[in-house]
Design goal:
The complex is a heterodimer.
Chain A lengths: L3 E16 L5 E16 L3 E5 L6 H8 L7 E6 L2 E2 L4 H7 E5 L11 H11 L4 H14 L15 H13 L5 E5 L7 H16 L3 E5 L3 H7 L2 E6 L2 E6 L1 H5 L5 E9 L3 H8 L4 E9 L2 E9 L5 H7 L4 E8 L3 H13 L1
Parallel strand pairs in A: 3-8, 3-9, 6-7, 7-8
Antiparallel strand pairs in A: 1-2, 1-4, 4-5, 9-10, 11-13, 11-14, 12-13
Chain B lengths: L1 H14 L5 H26 L4 H30 L3 H5 L5 H30 L8 H26 L6 H15 L11 H8 L4 H11 L4 H36 L6
Classes of the chains: A alpha/beta, B mainly alpha.
Amino acid sequence: MTDYAIEAAGLRRTYRSRTGWLRPKVKEVEAVKGVSFTVAKGELFGLLGPNGAGKTTTIKMLNTLLIPTGGHARIFGKDVVAETREVRQRIGYVFGGDRGLYDRLSGLDNLRYFAELYGIPPREQKQRIGELLELVNLTGRERERVEGYSRGMRQRLHIARGLLHRPSVLFLDEPSIGVDPVAARDLRRTVADLAATGTTVLLTTHYMAEADELCDRIAVIAQGELKALGTPEELKHHADGRTVLEVEAYGLEDETFKDIKNLHGVREATLETQGAVQLLTVQSVSDVDVQPSVLARLGGIRLGRVAARQPTLEDAYVAIVAGDRS
Amino acid sequence: MRLIFVGGAIAYRALFNWTTPSMFIGTLLVGPVFQLLFFAYLGRQLGVANDGFYIVGNAVLAASALCLFGGTMAVSNERRYSTLSNVLLSPRSRTLIFLGRALPYAGNGLLVATFTLVVGKFLLNMSVPGTAWFGLILTLAAASLSAAFFGLVLGSIGLRFRDVWLISNSMVAVMILLSGTTVPRENLPAALRAIGDFLPLTHAAAAARELAGGETLANVLPGLGLEVAIGAGYAIIAAVLLKIFEYESRRTASLDTL
């Protein structure tokens, strides 16, 4: 009997696409390039990475929806290619966004249908569905058609669907995408409760605070390769020896941003637009104070808050991913 | 058994687009009656066959569009709702999941075919022996079931190819031409007649016409048996294709393409 809930060893996946009729061109993209990791039973494991990094492809290989082009993976010792039925009995899969449900049916009928697909006996179905509706706070709304549900309600229904058959491993692929802050907080609580009761959870997310709060360990994947693996505290060491300067700016232009990135002592810089405000985040080596030179470059631009702080998991993530790009 | 019947019924409500009263009445009840009248008057004009030929043939044919498109929707609409991944993650038998989905369409097809036959009979004053009705209903049921399984074959192709509606649309026209429901098979070239032999509805249409003409059920049983065998054949083909195309979709990552 294996000690691991999930084992991935040298997982690879290449996509082939073909365009054109007369002179067809075949293009190959290596989405995942030999990813290896293990997840212990009951662990809450995060898989982080930028868009197109290979997170969803990795999850789909682990949950049997995609056949790897190389390497192998096991769920509780069962091979994801050779023993698909055994794997599927043990896993649940929830993906983000508002699709993946039958819009014309009520929430209750969606759950009833998936309960049939997992062979849950009729007597148990009613009780289980009731429990899950309670868990995801949809009691009282279950007889309404899903087409009238908000995105948050749909996401909660997805979670209930994924848990119907009491899976030992739950794959959550960006479950909080597009969900409002209150719903996202409830979702985090639900995920934490699941892990606390022994369910192994593999979570992908773009929200670092979510990963930091929830995950026992995190793997960072970029360009199809595993770049870092460890606890959130361990990953934060990737930003050791750095300080972070945050500046709120209005009207920062690309040229100025490029200049700042090239300043002496600057390791990484990101610019994020939040409504009318641009949030400039500059990571620099600790022994160089870049604040005066950054502010000098921003001369003439209207500024808001300026603050220096210690690196967070997000800064470490940026350091890992950007380090890969450089 | 629950997966076949309960699962099939829920999937029908989830995936069949024509269940609203306006769509159901317009597309499934009124449409086939007008099609029947069109062919009956065309037949009269051209002197090809009598009204009875078209009433029975079009009643059998009435089940085809519903069963063909329904069978296609039963699989292809999973892509539309992005639910295909969730369904395929079920550990249960694909054969039970998807063959169960054909049954509500077959039942619906029987209802539509019977309605078309009864309305056609009254509108065009066709006489049908009272003793023939049981056999006729049985024949229409066999036709609907084989057409639904044929539709499921088309739907299974939708697991692998996104443009399956092109095939379904063409197949409806093929059925009109080759199944003997609207064009007398003796007027067709031998090669086309041979293709018709392997299509759903062909043998049911012939059996239904014999029943309406006064033949006993016992005498049309061989034809009815052939229709059932063809339906079973398509059910097996659908089950095999679903297995192959599911594997291929996982291999080529085409599950989520719309």
